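W.,

You were right to be curious about this one. When I first looked at the sequence I had no strong expectations either way, so I just let the prediction run and decided to look at it fresh. Below is the sequence, 178 residues in total, followed by the output.
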Amino acid sequence: MSSRLITTWSDYDGAVQEILDRSTATLQIFDEDLAPLRLESPERIAVLRGLLVARESHQRLTIVVQKPDFVRQYSPQLMHLLTVYAPSLTVIHSPPHLDKFKDSLLIADGRHTLIRFHRDHARARLILDDVHECTPHTKRFEEIVAAARRATQSDHAWTVRSTPPISRGMGRGRGRRS
């Protein structure tokens, strides 16, 4: 069990890779647009693919983004993984009322967490091998997902399902596109 403060973008990038490398079953991401996570790098796509390839029922990658345009435009490998591995991989556009959140979460297996305190800064906390310390962040992520799903049901959010472009609704109204 360990925790350390991250203060540089280089250290943040290393901490992202460390969290990804430790992920064996679930990975939960909440971020403005995924850009600072550099998920399109070959080593990171390989880790994500490795997590999803087993297709075990407990293996999931859930991503909630505030601005999905970056994902749509600049993450072709992630979008490809979405087409191959849905529903084990879900990308959800958070509802507008969550735009006030300026932090970022990266949670692996409920026991490793990277929290960036503000999206404009590298300052973050890395928690490793500590379920107890990670639990509040995991619960917060689950609350964010629940809020996004409630908003989706009332047509205020977008959900990426198995094929781009991002469509409205979660399994209903699939013919509508924006």
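Here's what jumped out at me. DSSP finds five helices and nine strands in the chain. And, maybe more interesting for your project: Strands lie at 2-6, 26-31, 60-65, 89-93, 104-108, 112-116, 124-128, 158-160, 167-168.

Coffee later to discuss?

I.
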